[in-house]
Amino acid sequence: MSSELPNGWKMVIGLEVHTELATETKLFSGSANHFGGEPNTQLDPVSLGLPGSLPVLNERAVELAIRIGLALNCVVQRSVFARKNYFYPDQPKDFQISQYELPINGEGHLDLPDGSTVGITRAHLEEDTGKSSHMGSGGGRIHDAEYTLVDYNRAGVPLLEIVSEPDMRTAEQAKVYVTELRSILVAVRASDGKMEEGSMRVDANVSVRRSDNDPFGTRCEIKNVNSIRSLGRAIDFEARRQIDLLEAGESIRQETRHWNEDEGRTVTLRSKEEATDYRYFPEPDLVELDPDPAWIEEIRAALPMLPRERRLQLTARTGASTEASSLIVERGLDEMVLAALDAGGDPGRLITHAQQLSDDRAVGLDPSAFAELSTMESSGAISATQAKTVLARMVDTGEQPSAIAADLGFEAMASNELETIVDGLIAAHADEWAKFVAGEQKVMGFFVGAVMKATGGKADGKAVSAILNQRRG
């Protein structure tokens, strides 16, 4: 579904991203913070809100929150914890310890790969809730469930809620924002960013208006978005739903909506709460948090190079496109590519092959061997097709490319031998050749495929294309 809206309507999007912090223990207690444990086995009196239990702040969680804030260009500041009061079964204390008026990270911004900027309103610390599982024949929906089970293992896990400004205007831009944010969280080692495990969750606030100059419309918040693809679909659906209502003369009710992945639509979950509904007040059992400026600067100095700088570095040193650099950095292969470049590798072929590497094992590929593979191809010792085969085996076995090529009997074809094969195929397929000469460029694929078949994959596809274009004149 396209993000282009009918009749000139415009959408406005703001995102709230909750990321679990990669600590060993919970935010206010010593219970383990590990994904996948047996239900209700990672508990303690603080997590359960038992009488007499008192929270003790996790210093490591504070450090990771500051790391993220600095990476997002936020102002790290004095902060105060507050009680956010609400009564859901997955919140055992009947309140959540969060931050309200004074968050640890104030205003910041995130630069996207296309050069646009999304403002960050705040990024505040809070504890996670438990997890409710609605059981029975209702497909996981509370209204149709026969009963509900609650697992409190997640209750008390440290979260950082990152709230954006309503600066995004398309579902695609929102997807890029979440992708870039996730890459930053992983790069600073503050979170694993695994949406499928719930360690990163996204709520989308969506509204529509007639033009960019009109005031913002009434927004609805979409919950339960568990993948970047679903985020785009949910935003597009919600914007069109609101437009349909407005064009029918109806109004938008501010509410929280649930994204139903199976049906591809949003449905009403509850009326949208305002801050006053939560009756925030300062948490009486915790003092204010005021990080030492020297500690903040120490954390800043230890930050690794962030994805944006890594993309720029890779592009500058190899000439890679923005798209190629983004893909390689996202897969964590840029350091290996640059090391191979330092070892004398061919930059263009390194980039080409790095884009084809998607397996996590490729991160451990020996840079010098990768460099050797690229120069074997650029010198004509092996073809591009053969190089792909050699690379796949290098990832699997760690062997040197020259040894693999020798074992497989790969060797470069003499140019005159290749020309003879191409000329023979042209003569044998006169009708296809006439179409190619007439300008049907797609027919080239037929001839390249035929040459590859005739040579057992030993021919260089680029060389074949050059001969075909030369013969066409």
Please characterize this protein's 3D structure.
- The chain is an alpha+beta fold and 473 residues long.
- The protein folds into 3 domains: 6-300, no CATH class; 307-408, no CATH class; 415-472, Arc Repressor Mutant, subunit A, CATH 1.10.10.
- It is 39% helix and 18% strand.
- It has helices at 45-48, 59-71, 171-187, 228-247, 293-301, 307-318, 322-330, 334-342, 347-356, 367-378, 384-397, 401-408, 415-428, 430-437, 443-454, 461-472, and strands at residues 10-20, 81-85, 95-99, 108-111, 117-127, 131-135, 147-151, 158-164, 200-209, 220-225, 255-260, 265-271, 281-282.
- The protein is globular.
- It starts with 9 loop residues before the first strand and ends with a helix.
- 37% of the residues are buried.
Write the layout of secondary structure elements.
Blueprint: E1 10-20, H1 45-48, H2 59-71, E2 81-85, E3 95-99, E4 108-111, E5 117-127, E6 131-135, E7 147-151, E8 158-164, H3 171-187, E9 200-209, E10 220-225, H4 228-247, E11 255-260, E12 265-271, E13 281-282, H5 293-301, H6 307-318, H7 322-330, H8 334-342, H9 347-356, H10 367-378, H11 384-397, H12 401-408, H13 415-428, H14 430-437, H15 443-454, H16 461-472
Parallel strand pairs: 10-11
Antiparallel strand pairs: 1-8, 1-9, 2-3, 2-13, 4-5, 5-8, 6-7, 9-10, 11-12
Helix pairs in contact: 3-4, 6-7, 6-8, 7-9, 8-9, 8-10, 10-11, 13-15, 13-16, 15-16
